[in-house]
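Researcher: Re-running this chain for the archive, since the previous output was lost when a drive failed. Same request as before.
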Amino acid sequence: MNLHFRLETTDDHYAVEEMTREAFWELWEPDKAICDEHLLVHRLRNSDNLIPELNIVAQLDDKLVGHIIYTKATIIGDCDNEREVLTFGPLTVSPQVQGMGVGQALMRYSFAEAKRLGYLAVLIFGHPNYYPRIGFRPAAEFGITTEEGSSFDAFMAYPLYEGALDGINGRYIIDDAYMGLTQDDALEFDKKFPPRAPYQTRPISILLDRLDSAARKAMEKTGIESLEMMTEKSAKEVLALPGMDKQGIDAIYRVLKEYGVKW
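Model: Regenerated structure tokens:
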């Protein structure tokens, strides 16, 4: 595979946003009308926390197929001491080449660049069954929580070298751009792209109807509303639910695979 990485240029902006829109169009939140990741990319480019050296596109035979964008984040310790780390996202891979390793290649290339630039670690909120394959570990293992003090498997950390996060713990603070997205803003921004029918999430009842009584009750307590929202939880977290067992996990895998949801 003739994959090439380079910095994003202004000439790439529309193409990257359109590719991001296409890659994230299939929503997981039932209360959203459309995705907002393409708007997020647009806003992050103007953030004071943007790291231009880590705003990278991937090309396959001169065709744009991927993009990753990094911003600075902060870990604030108990004594209000601050340490700078990184976050990335959206990580975009064109739907035409998903499953070919483009996303992993983008991460590994950008991790090497981030390490060369002197950064400590990367922390993300991401798919808890996918990112551990790259080497991400639950942030809780390092004593790092969300800003609100929460821990869950979808919140992960990747030290850029051995011991990079030793002695660093506290609350994780990310750029405000990640938190200030609204559907009104996304719908207005989306007018610059060709019209597209909104994606309809699949209700979680499709899955619940295929589980035995105990596993069903376990899933109902999670508050998950759609099949797509299952990507918020790792298989380990779901298996730990009271009433869930391996047979239930196997049934969940079968249903999600049947409906094309990657878990």
